[in-house]
Amino acid sequence: MTDPIAELEQATRVVAGLFTGPTCVEATALLLEVAMQLGHKVEARAVSLFATDLETGHQVTGQRGQAFGESFLARRGISAPLIETFAGGTPFQIYAGHMIVVSEEFGLLMDPTFDQFEPLGEQATPIFAQNVRLRSNSYWQVISDDLYVRYFAADEFADLDFSEARAQTTGRAKKIAAHIRGSRT
User: φ, ψ for residue 82 (rounded to 5)?
Assistant: First the structure.
């Protein structure tokens, strides 16, 4: 019997290794297809985020995360100017700017391209988080000793043709899923 969480974690690592830079749409499409090939129900979500290295105060934020981020840092006595990472472009780029994959069934959040947020330094690594649930129907949060990330749901700004990105990944997704299945037997 396969462990679905281990499969999804491995899929996240594989997909993360295939992409660099701001390629969240493509990486999310591939991870979604791999998970579906493995028989798991997951969904891609458009998000805006606020993330901070709790030790250094370095952060990245999207437009929706800016007000939250200012308040969050002030409560911790950190006076750091917020750097808006996502500016200009389509409504998706302005108000969302990022995509993740979530599994409500297993309480997972997968962000294979979190490493693109270089201002976070060594905290900028792909995220595979367990026990994460949508809160107040508006955000997910991932917390560790040194990192805090709040992902704000921004589905209303997913004005991109995600179906095209998904369609382009089908063959690759099948190969990755077969590899993951093969490594588990």
Answer: -80, 135
Q: Which tokens is 5 given?
A: 């969480």
Segment holding 72, helix H or strand E = helix 65-75
What tens digit of pLDDT does each residue of 83-142 get?
555 556 777 777 778 999 999 999 999 999 999 998 898 999 999 999 999 999 999 999
To the nearest 10°, report the CA torsion of 91, 93, 95, 100.
120
Alpha-carbon gap, residue 156 to 94, rounded angstroms: 12
Q: Which residue has the tokens 């997968």?
A: 110
Q: What are the CA-CA distances from residue 95 to residues 31, 86, 105, 134 (Å)?
A: 23, 8, 27, 19
Which tens digits make up the pLDDT trace of 40-80?
999 999 998 999 998 888 888 887 777 788 788 888 777 66
User: Phi, psi at residue 175, to the nearest 5°?
Assistant: -65, -45
Bridge-based pairing state of the strands 127-129 and 139-143: unpaired
Q: Where are the beta strands (DSSP E) in the chain?
A: 43-53, 59-61, 98-103, 108-111, 127-129, 139-143, 147-153
Give residue 80's pLDDT. 63
Please report, as a single letter, which amino acid is at residue 158: A
End-to-end CA distance of the chain: 9
